[in-house]
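Figure 3 (text version): structure tokens given as input.
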């Protein structure tokens, strides 16, 4: 992949993210705050963006979304390497609880 292709992929991901975020915010604000890991102020701003504003923001060369799983414990729980199917469900639930707690700390 060359630099132009990477930039095109970033722009596409940005637009998809903004459209998804706006849709989530408009349909269920509380779930959007949790699932996107954003603040109330950010949700308000994204919810009010026009289509042309979203296109302009998405056209930048910086990825707007980021991983919230920034530690080894959460990644380990999400990947569940070497664990049985029954334990995978518990591990996924544990990871969700950890990330929900971090969302509350950030808010």
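Below: residues designed for each position.
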């Amino acid at each position: 992949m060359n630099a132009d292709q990477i930039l095109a992929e970033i722009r596409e991901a940005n637009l998809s993210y903004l459209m998804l975020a706006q849709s989530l915010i408009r349909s269920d604000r509380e779930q959007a705050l949790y699932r996107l890991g954003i603040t109330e102020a950010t949700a308000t701003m994204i919810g009010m963006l026009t289509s042309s504003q979203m296109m302009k923001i998405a056209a930048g060369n910086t990825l707007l979304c980021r991983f919230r799983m920034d530690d080894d414990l959460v990644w380990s729980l999400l990947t569940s390497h070497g664990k049985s199917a029954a334990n995978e469900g518990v591990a996924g639930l544990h990871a969700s609880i950890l990330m929900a707690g971090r969302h509350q700390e950030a808010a």
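The two ends are 38 Å apart (CA to CA).
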